[in-house]
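Worked example 3. Consider a protein that binds zinc ion.
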Amino acid sequence: MFLEQKGNKTQKKGWIEVVCGSMFSGKTEELIRRLKRAEFAQQKVEIFKPAIDIRYDDENVVSHVGTSIRSTPVPSSGNILLLANAVDVIGIDEAQFFDDELPEVCEKLANSGIRVIIAGLDMDFTGKPFGPIPDLLSKAEFVTKVHAICMHCGDLAQYSHRKTKNEELVLLGEIEEYEPLCRKCFNLVTNR
Ligand code: ZN
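Given these inputs, the predicted complex is written out as structure tokens:
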């Protein structure tokens, strides 16, 4: 934990980190790795996710490779402010599904001395910036873009192509519904 002298009182210094990328890029694994490392250093860690994400487990953030960490599902980003008591680090998974207040909530948390680590999809299945993520990318001190492997050609992939025709934006995905694609292959299959 970085400490900063302000006048004669010592204050904790907070900041915002974003880990973003397509589906199957290892965002959640990277979030869990950072959070477990903080826990190992005896820091108090809290993890939140949108209550909408009920894919695997009500209480755990679980990655595709099966690593997990206990988390609290919340209906809106405002709940994170209410529940973040005396913590050093806050993790937020599937951040793209949160409301537009999330960037402001994260700034308040960071300003109060908390390290905030956000994981989320940066683009939806059509290739458009997703929910509050673009705003968070500009407000964060640190941004990490992780990549999947293109299912068609093996290059690095940044798009989450939806193979089914369902047009609903919030469709939580598994390997049967989505495939990571590179720019060239995404443009080919979507006729962009
Ligand atoms: Zn490709």
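Take a moment to read the result before moving on. The chain has a mean pLDDT of 88. The chain has five helices and 14 strands.
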